[in-house]
UniProtKB/TrEMBL annotation:
This is ATP-binding cassette domain-containing protein. It comes from Candidatus Kutchimonas denitrificans. Residues 2-240 form the ABC transporter domain. The lineage of its organism: Bacteria, Pseudomonadati, Gemmatimonadota, Gemmatimonadia, Candidatus Palauibacterales. It holds the Pfam family ABC_tran. One of its GO terms (molecular function) is ATP hydrolysis activity. Keywords: ATP-binding, Nucleotide-binding, Transport. Gene3D superfamilies: P-loop containing nucleotide triphosphate hydrolases. PROSITE patterns: ABC_TRANSPORTER_1, ABC_TRANSPORTER_2.
Length: 249
């Protein structure tokens, strides 16, 4: 379980998160919605200790992240795959080598054959052919790079996957393919996922729970149906901006 408890975070005098609490139970996918610049990336970076809270706590499977030792933090990071917004593949490494990095933090402790087999298996799970392992990131389309980044994130049988804007920057067809893949992986490997996104359409398809970050706080948390049907005007404006903006021009 990932438990974010009363987290506050400022950069200088800019307050980004104010007393944010969010509990993510095992299984399923939570979409974390919010307009650009509201602190979605800042919030999920707390989960793997890339950012420390000014106040509050983040607990992953019983480990308090801000006070974790280096060793505990490494152990948690091996259980939490992170798909960065820009894919963040290493250009100088082949696809296979990039995926191998996700297997464990100290490199692959298995035999070469086991490593190879796992790389092929990860490629299969993201619908890429085995031959792709030999290619370099620059030879791939944006959608393929995203799939490789996802494969790297779960290659070590991570229990949690954090996706930061996985469909942003992709054309609608590839955005659909990537979100379908996230949905399919959920079923096939049973990970617990958090998908940070402002892409409502794909977020709704993939997620079973939804949280909305608004002005530094969690404005709403619940099921997709509850989110769709709530009367909260802030949620309504986020879901259908056209209703609110109609008549402005
Ligand atoms: N390391 C940092 N130092 C200073 N400001 C930051 C840092 N990281 C994020 N911010 C600021 O925090 C705010 C929220 O950023 P972010 O979490 O990236 O938003 P988003 O919801 O789009 O992911 C932004 O105003 C951003 O400029
Ligand atoms: Mg972001």
């Amino acid at each position: 379980m990932i438990d974010i408890i009363g987290v506050s975070k400022s950069f200088g005098d800019k307050v980004v998160l104010k007393d944010v609490s969010l509990r993510v139970h095992e299984g399923g996918t939570t979409a974390l919605f919010g307009p650009s610049g509201t602190g979605k990336s800042v919030l999920i970076k707390h989960i793997i200790g890339l950012i420390e809270p000014d106040e509050g706590n983040v607990i992953v499977d019983g480990v308090s992240i801000p006070s974790a030792s280096r060793r505990e933090l490494n152990e948690v990071r091996q259980r939490v795959g992170y798909v960065f917004q820009g894919s963040a593949l290493f250009d100088s490494l082949s696809v296979g080598e990039n995926i191998r990095l996700g297997m464990d933090i100290d490199g692959c402790r298995r035999t070469a054959e086991e490593c190879e087999a796992r790389i092929i298996e990860c490629l299969r799970l993201v619908n890429l052919d085995p031959e792709v392992a030999e290619l370099y990131p620059i030879e791939l389309s944006g959608g393929m790079q995203k799939r490789v980044a996802i494969a790297r994130a779960f290659a070590g049988h991570q229990r949690y996957l954090l996706y930061d804007e996985p469909t942003t920057g992709l054309d609608p067809e590839n955005a659909f393919i990537i979100s379908s893949l996230i949905e399919h992986l959920q079923e096939e490997i049973g990970v617990t996922s958090i998908m940070v996104t402002h892409d409502i359409e794909n977020g709704f398809r993939v997620a079973d729970r939804v949280a909305l970050l608004h002005q530094g706080g969690i404005r709403f948390e619940g099921t997709v149906d509850e989110f769709r049907n709530t009367d909260d005007p802030v949620v309504r404006r986020f879901v259908s901006p056209s209703e609110e903006i109609a008549g402005v021009y």
